[in-house]
Amino acid sequence: ISKQEICIIFSIFVIAFTIRSYDLGELALNNDEAIYAGQAAALANYSEYQEQFSIFRAHPLLLQFMISISFYFFGISEFTARIVPVFLSCGIVVISYFVAKFLYNQQTAIISTIILSLLPYHVSISKQALVDVSMSFFFILDLLLIILYFRQNKILLLYGIGITSGLSFLSKEVGIITFAISIITLIIINKKIRFKNILFVTLSFIF
Prior knowledge:
Distance between the termini: 32 Å
Shape: flat
Oligomer: single chain
């Protein structure tokens, strides 16, 4: 990666972060956000929230766990609940740059990443403490690792594919589709079923 490319990526990250963090704590939490934030507060050992919010509810707890770390160090507020999804969504923007670059070219990567950083729907979801954000982050990271495996064919990348699939699932149960997509794509890339590679991905996913 050249210095010029690093400057471009950093500039896009700053734009994405500025838009998403503006007035981040001004609006009250909506219904889903309140549940996830309450779970995070319970995980952070705030006893008053443990009585009101059951830690185990509809979804896995990866995002709630990350938010609980934010609560533990910086206190409970709308801002500290939403700043975690903001960083994850900015990560999505950066990872998308490399996905577009490896699939197409740098020009396509720059244009698509700028569009994504400014896309109203993506911005609005990114400013909310929702499990969809963390699931999407690990899904796009899994996609990048699959592309790198197609280009480099390294065993280490298979472990990364399994782990990111697992983290996508731990964000939201529908993230299990990430694991299915990964296995099917690896079969297509290898043009045959390689049980050893599938085993590496599966064990990493289970771990």
